[in-house]
Design goal:
Distance between the termini: 107 Å
Strand order of the largest sheet: 2-1-4-5-6-7
Order of helices and strands: HEEEEEEEEEE
Number of strands: 10
Shape: rod-shaped
Helix content: 25-40%
Number of domains: 1
Structural class: alpha+beta
Amino acid sequence: MFFKKDKKNRAFTLIEMLIVISIVGIAVPIIVTIFGAVMRQQIQTKKLVETKNQADFVLNSVKIIVKNHAFSLHNSFPASTENEICQNQSETQTPTSMVFEDLEGESFYFDLQEGVVASVSSVLAEPVELSSKPVAISDLVVSCSRSSFFASPLVRVSFTATHEDTRLGVVALPFQTRISLRNE
């Protein structure tokens, strides 16, 4: 014997509705949690990329400026023969300020103020900022060394680039490079 369903009773039963609501009630928090974690990870990755890009720009700018223009190193501004450093073999110096002199006798240096690195030159009317907020540069160290009298001085530049967010924490990356001065 076959039972025929009434066309009037084509609705869901109460148990079917409760099962669907409970499945949705379990699935939605899981999906929201996963989505929130993915979004936090995306924001953290974006901060990391922004920090790396700005720090790479600063590092490459310093490297190009020093490589193409610096001829001698000095421990104070303005540059003169009395304050020239890294002339002797096996000499390593990390003065509080490192001033470079180009072939035309003009002085320039890199300054760190409130997390921003700027290129300061006696030729320019005002400093040129190489970094910007929200990435902060800290611990800028410019040092020099010379392995022998015939070798060019090596300039070592290092700093830490930091991107801080109150909700997601801090991204801090160390950067460094070595630059050989021209020996002309």
